[in-house]
Amino acid sequence: MIMTLLIVGLILFLGMHSVYMLAPSVRLQLISKLGPQGWKGLYALIALVGFVLLVLGYADARASTTLVWLPPSGMAHLTALLTLVAFIFLIATYIPGSKLKAKVGHPMLLATKIWALAHLVSNGTLVAMILFASFLIWAVAGFAVSRRKDRAEGVQRVGYWSRDAITVVIALVGYWLFAFHLHELLIGVKPFGM
After folding, report:
1. Transmembrane region positions (predicted)?
2. Does the pTM of the predicted model rise above 0.70?
3. Hey, is 123 helix, strand or coil?
4. Each residue of 24-61: pLDDT tens digit?
């Protein structure tokens, strides 16, 4: 089957990233058995193998996949705009004291939801739908579980507007770099067709 690598990659990558919500007791047992560094090493190894397989699988399957629907014109513009928003939340993940991070709680998961949805609306192939719908479903579930856990634990975060300004500037630079240079190099597609 042409999409086997992609599916195995998704299972490994998203599966490892789902252990905290689907099998927290197994995670704790593995941390106890392997130690925190051993667990992080195992986690990183399996996630990396999964990521490589899903990238290779997507590249292979993209060439011969079925067109399920033809995206309306203009969807690429919507994808570009939503991806910029996703970049802002992605960067907020790594800027301590960001008001965005304080408000959202889990900006990486929100960024993933926005990114996946953005790419679903502009890609009508079966392989694209499998890839982006998988990430969207995972991110929606992860966000819900993480926010519920925060509420149960009474987590409160504080943020500052100055950190959001830094976040937006870094996100704009990162978006420009990725959209105009790295996307074509890594994915093989020019987002703006230039």
Report:
1. 43-61, 73-95, 115-145, 165-183
2. yes
3. coil
4. 899 999 999 999 999 999 999 999 999 999 989 998 88
